[in-house]
């Protein structure tokens, strides 16, 4: 409930917090425009059972989850969160940066194993001239960057560009058939409690932006 109230308060200030399921296993959705993300498409995705931007990707993700579940196994995925309308200058350098605060809360969600902002780990393979986001003045007279590889955060503070981050979720432990069991005598196999996919949908992935984690699971 607190998250829903916070969301409404943020929307009154023109700030939208949205998320989508970017990938499940090797099935990936279409990329989001990091400079001008399609908020309407994100809203439409949030209303689907599997919140991908395209119906085609959602269908393939659902098929993969069912396939994995049929094999008694599980699979991980990635959730992408987008926050638009943030003013520049929120946050602080070093320990109280925006990335620090969001990461701390994201890792409070069970099964999270990694997080990246903007270009993330791809930045390690770039040159400075490739990763740099040149500043410009847009058609409305606002200062912004031409690209958004920094993901809306520079030096621990918001830049005024869309804030983008991705969180990676591990698969749950699979069914007991492939676990090593230490026993001196045969024992009946215990019932499986594993989930086919624990990748959260939009309520969980976007919650850290307003400090209200709430995971969603696909149950077998």
Structure description:
With 220 residues, the protein is of the alpha+beta class. It contains six helices and nine strands. The chain has helices at 2-12, 39-46, 55-70, 98-106, 128-131, 202-205; strands at 16-24, 27-28, 77-84, 112-117, 135-137, 143-145, 153-154, 157-158, 163-169. The strands form three sheets. Strands 2-1-3-9-4 form a five-stranded antiparallel β-sheet. A two-stranded antiparallel sheet has the order 5-6. A two-stranded antiparallel sheet has the order 7-8. A hairpin with a 2-residue loop joins strand 1 (16-24) and strand 2. The protein is globular, with a radius of gyration of 19 Å. The chain starts with a helix and ends in a 15-residue tail after the last helix.
């Amino acid at each position: 409930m607190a998250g829903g109230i916070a969301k409404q308060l943020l929307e009154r200030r023109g700030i939208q917090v949205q998320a989508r399921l970017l990938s499940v296993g090797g099935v990936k959705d279409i990329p989001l425009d990091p400079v001008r993300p399609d908020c309407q498409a994100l809203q439409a995705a949030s209303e689907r059972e599997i919140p991908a931007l395209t119906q085609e990707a959602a269908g393939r993700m659902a098929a993969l989850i069912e396939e994995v579940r049929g094999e008694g196994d599980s699979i991980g995925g990635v959730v992408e969160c987008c926050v638009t309308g943030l003013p520049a200058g929120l946050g602080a350098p070093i320990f109280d940066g925006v990335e620090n605060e969001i990461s701390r809360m994201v890792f409070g969600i069970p099964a999270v194993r990694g997080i990246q902002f903007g270009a993330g780990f791809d930045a390690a393979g770039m040159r400075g001239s490739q990763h740099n986001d040149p500043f410009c003045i847009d058609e409305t007279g606002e200062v912004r960057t031409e690209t958004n590889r920094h993901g809306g955060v520079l030096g621990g503070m918001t830049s005024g560009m869309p804030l983008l981050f991705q969180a990676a979720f591990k698969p749950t432990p699979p069914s007991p058939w492939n676990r090593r069991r230490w026993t001196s005598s045969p024992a009946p196999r215990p019932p499986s409690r594993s989930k086919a996919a624990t990748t959260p949908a939009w309520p969980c992935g976007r919650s850290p932006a307003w400090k209200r984690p709430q995971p969603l699971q696909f149950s077998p």
